[in-house]
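To whoever picks this up:

The parser on our side crashed when reading a file containing two proteins. I've narrowed it down to the boundary between the first structure block and the second sequence. Both blocks are reproduced below exactly, byte for byte. First block:
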Amino acid sequence: MDLRFYLSLFLRRLHWFVLIVAICSAAGIMIARVMPTVYRAEARLLVESEQIPDALAASTVQTQATEQLQIIQQRILTRDILVEMSNRLNIYADRKAKGQPPLESEDIVADLRNRLIIRTSGNSAGARRGDTQATIVTVSFEAPTSQMAASVTNEIVTLILREDVSMRTGVARQTLEFFEQEVQRLDSELAQRGAAILAFKEQNLTALPDSLEFRRSKQSAMQERLVQIERVEAELLDRRERMVRLHDASADANDVVPVRDRTPEQAQLQSLRDERSRALAVLSPENPKIKLLDAQIIAIENIVATQIAGSSVGDDGQRLSAYDIQLADLDGQIAYLGEQKALVQTQIDELTTSIEATPSNEIALDVLQRDYDAVQAQYNQSVSARAKAATGDTIEALSKGQRISIIEQAIAPRDPALPNRPVIAASGVGGGLALGLGFVVLLELLTAGIRRPIDLTKGLGITPFATLPYLRSRREIVKRRVLVWGGLVLVLAAIAGLLWLIHTQYVPLDLLVEQTIRRFR
């Protein structure tokens, strides 16, 4: 490898190398110089688990830590909140001091979202019960001044804490209000179901399933009573029929009275009459014994007549015979038994109707009761859930549930986080060296021709005896140097003038660099 040859080639292209290195170094130094100073303030938060064991009392807010933080981040990064915070903290007051135009609200929101960083470490999948790894939240903000960075970071932390409390207490309160409304609704529905059951029972009071056995036993008793009434009625009818037959067959209807219906006086009178008839068969009517019997018969007849006179007067004032009295008594008993028979039959019919209607009433009542029991079960569950929701609401109101607390507040940093000016300047110089060397190599690769004796041998297949280099005169050397270095100075001056025009006439270079960096973030 001919190092002297390559070194000579490099020296011949040295002006291009120096030009590129100078341009890149100047650009790197300028960028490092004009880039705005950025301070980054950081605050750390901790997501604490519930302070009361779930076995004793559980919170009704079951949002996982990562999900909760994502919700909070989306809420605090809304347009209204960011614009209000920007105006309240005067985040862009430096633009007015520099004479720059104010940003639109959309640009403010986009800029603040880019400069605000919220990172979550720990349980990346969410804080699950039983996990031992804590969830740490890091909040940082970039600003031109350290005080502004700390103020905005602490304001974001305040918003996170406020939104956390508001979200958890709001969810707990909404849960409690929901179950309170549900309990009221189910209580009203339960009252309506109960009123419907009560109205149905009152409407079908005699045909309810709980009294079915009683009505069946009552129906059997009524049927037995009906049989007894019919039996007694049949006996009375038979007795009346026999009395009528005996009355029709007797010659003297006034004297014919059944033996079982006679009074003691009537029986005695009949006995005296029979004795007189037997005595007349052997004695004369003038016999003292016959006269004694006649006197006794007359006395007994007077007594019987008196008895008949006191109880044998009808409704029309006419005197009734013993036959008529007994017949009327039998008719009254038969009529009473007929009334009792009709009454018992009516009750039996009513019981039969109610017994036949009981199965359909039982089905309808079961439907109403099933609906009532379903609503009752829902009501009991809602009451239990309301009690749990009330406990959860108390837990969240006292901040005893899962919460976000501050580990370390943001303080004003002493040193800026960005830019790293030495690294940027060194990067410009290093990039210039690499680009300059690459450009020199590219030029040599693109240049064709014979430059060394070995090129003659390789290209033409001949071996030269000697080679003479091209010798420039001193004037040519001076002219070449003036052209090279003069061009280099002109290029550097043109670049500097162009940057100056951009900075003064179009947009400040620091703002341009800042916008460019922001686009590539």
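<<boundary where parser fails>>
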Amino acid sequence: MDRLLSKIESPRDLQQFTPAELEELAHEMREALCNVVADRTAHFASNLGVVELCLALHTEFDFARDRLIWDTGHQIYPHKLITGRYHEFGTMRCKGGLMGYPNPHESEYDLFMTGHAGSSVSTVLGMRSGDHLNGQDDRHAVCVIGDGAFPSGIVYEAMNNAGGLGLKLLVILNDNQMSICPRVGGLGDYLDRLRVNTLYTGLKSEVLKVLNKVPVLGDPAERFLAQLKESIKAGLHGGMLFEELNFHYIGPIDGHNIPQLRKYLAMVKDVDGPVLLHVVTQKGHGFQPAAEDPVFFHTPAPFTRDEERVLEFKKSSSKAYTDVISEAIFDQMSKNEKVTVMTAAMCQGTKLERVREQYPTRFFDTGICESHTVAFAAGQAKAGLRPIVDIYSTFLQRSYDQIFQEVALQNLPVTFVMDRAGVVGPDGPTHHGVYDIGYMRLFPNMVVMAPGDTHDAQQMLDFALKHDSPTSIRYPKTKAENIEGARAPVELGRAEVIDWGHDGMLIACGTLVTECIKAAAKLREEGLDVGVVNARFIKPLDTETILRAIASSPFVVTVEEGALMTGFGSAVLEAANEAGESTAHVSRLGVPDRYIDHAERGEQLAELGLDAAGIAETCRELAAKSTKKSRRVS
């Protein structure tokens, strides 16, 4: 199964293979990808689609010296297989194993840890500029960017800059007609028009001179030159958008034809100035179920298979907080025609498919353009609508300025629902949503909420859509839970006291309240009476309840699934300071000032002391210190 793959210690080993062996190697690589998803969730369809492109790139360039950046990074698996990591491939996305994104700590062939879309053209241009200034113009610079990421505004900022600098640069547009979901917008329509043009366009005279020096590796030169002639006659209009930015546009070409890819990559090496090579691929190529449903197979649940058939999916039936919020959004849209919802190419991830189908005129997928999404929502709010912006916490960071200028400064009633807030398991440091508390609570007018359970999440969305200022709701990627017993309604700036303890208090921000309840129950069995408060609101804080706990309890522990710096615990300390309360007995649990490696979410929480066992141990230590201090005083 791995006759060829097992021989590869570095990409230089590819040079020994014949064209037929490269095709066989591509098959072995796809088998390795299928094996990864047999027992864990991993990015799949996107990786299947770039196997041939990866092989062609590494046979025509030497990326031990040349520069290569994979945009977004989730299509990095084939690259890892042939850059010395085949024997570790079974550890993909496991604690202590390979990361599911590029990681410079793993290999010299990974230049940036990329997990957000659109930045590759900027970073590779920066490297090319740096090499030029360092007198290393012999180093080629290449980035691979998908058509889903291509509408991102930063791409055009970078292309505008590249066209002005005029440096040699290769941007490969991997066009598979998909983002995670089907791509949207005018640029997608433009690329569709280029795809149906079977002629190779953009091959002007200066490119032809280079082409004549390149040995033909694939289709006959006669056919190629005939196509060139027809292209000149029928329209070098294809790719004009890119030509106007001073890029040589070449393509579209078949992204699954290794000889053809190699020929064009060899050709563009010698073209002066920036080049955009338009490569057409199929997401999920080589595994029929993934090719037929690339949305589902973007990150499928683990499955077993028989050759080209899926036999069984190993999928949990538990409802997640994402399901709870999406159902609440659907309910709100059914009751109020002023409510709209928008997401940035994450309809599947945010479980908004039913909303899209039932309310198509009030659902907006803006593509991977978070800054635009927020400004767009601000415009809708100004026009009298009640927009919901449903974006992962880690991606919403890209719209920080629009949250400030267009929403908070204008005091517009935009509701932000931030999925994947907290640690997110195997996706790792590029995707952890641990900074949103800090960047949201800074802004005047903004209300910041964190539901403790399903009950809170539903009520908070209802509250937000009736509130006349911007609001945000954060929730993690995990199974939804319910706190037992009678519940207090959600009211602005009011916490919920679950239990009051005489020996200490836990003040929980968000769904870790359930871990706090478990910890408190364990401690009571040991004779330690520790109470639990469900904070609910980060801003405005329930200072009455929180200051009472600080003033009357031997110790207080704040618990949050977010960065400690500028986080919920910091807000509590600030409130105590303003009230003149001593905080020597207040401790904070959360994410420290470092990046958290990929692992299962439970493993990450345990590492951070944020599971029930870790929270209980912190309470024991603080209770022991409090007892010793009391003895010294007496």
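After patching the parser it read the second block fine. Residues 612-633 form the longest helix (22 residues). Residues 5-298 form a domain with the Rossmann fold fold (CATH 3.40.50.970).
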